[in-house]
Amino acid sequence: xxxxxxxxxxxxxxxxxxxxxxxxxxxxxxxxxxxxxxxxxxxxxxxxxxxxxxxxxxxxxxxxxxxxxxxxxxxxxxxxxxxxxxxxxxxxxxxxxxxxxxxxxxxxxxxxxxxxxxxxxxxxxxxx
Length: 128
Known about the structure:
Layout: H1 4-14, E1 17-21, E2 24-30, E3 36-46, E4 49-60, H2 66-74, E5 80-84, E6 87-95, H3 101-122
Antiparallel strand pairs: 1-2, 2-3, 3-4, 4-6, 5-6
């Protein structure tokens, strides 16, 4: 996939889109354990190139100490924790140029599972 429009078309053909904005799509995943996990797919320009971010909410800012968030983020092989509007998200970013479906699908599903595990560990309930 070389563009945001191609990725959007792929996502809309293969996943249930629950929110659709110009530069962002929202997805909801039902997990085998009965839990759910929300995901945002967001187009982000960087130095003239298009990137896509996969974001999944983990907890509210007050649910975790800053040091604990940094320690958790430092253990991650790819991606990391970010704070946006009072919510802690797991975020992974990918360049759109030459992105193939496996390079999108694998990190997407890893983010869903990882975000849900962190949410369960930190807050103990299924908020997202």
